[in-house]
Amino acid sequence: KKMTVRIVELEEHCTSLTQKITSIEKQKSRLSQEIEIMILDLEKANNNFRETKSKLEIVDREYKSLVV
């Protein structure tokens, strides 16, 4: 009888752990998607920065050529 009770306890514990694993896997998937979106946003921001920097350098050169 003690063994049966212990087996039931362990089965319940296994079920609980399986549910936790499923929940964690869903969280991992969601976080992975969020990270992918953040990476794309970062790439866009870097591209915008490079474009703006390039335009600023052109304006700066034009300004310097007018001043001289």
Please give the structural blueprint.
Layout: H1 2-67
Descriptive overview:
With 68 residues, this protein is an all-alpha fold. 97% of the residues lie in helices and 0% in strands. It is built from one helix and no strands. The protein is rod-shaped, with a radius of gyration of 29 Å.
Summarize this entry quickly.
The protein is mainly alpha-helical and 68 residues long. It is built from 1 helix and no strands.
Segments where pLDDT lies below 50 for 5+ residues? none
Mean pLDDT across the residues is 97
Structural category: mainly alpha
Order of helices and strands: H
Distance between the termini: 98 Å
Please indicate the percent range of residues in DSSP E strands (runs of 2 or more).
under 5%
Helix content: over 70%
How is the main sheet built?
Answer: none
Shape: rod-shaped
User: How many helix segments?
Assistant: 1
Q: Radius of gyration from the CA trace?
A: 29 Å
Q: Could you give the count of β-strands?
A: 0
Keywords: Coiled coil
Protein name: Paramyosin
Task: Kindly list the characteristics that best describe this protein.
68 residues; mainly alpha; 1 helix
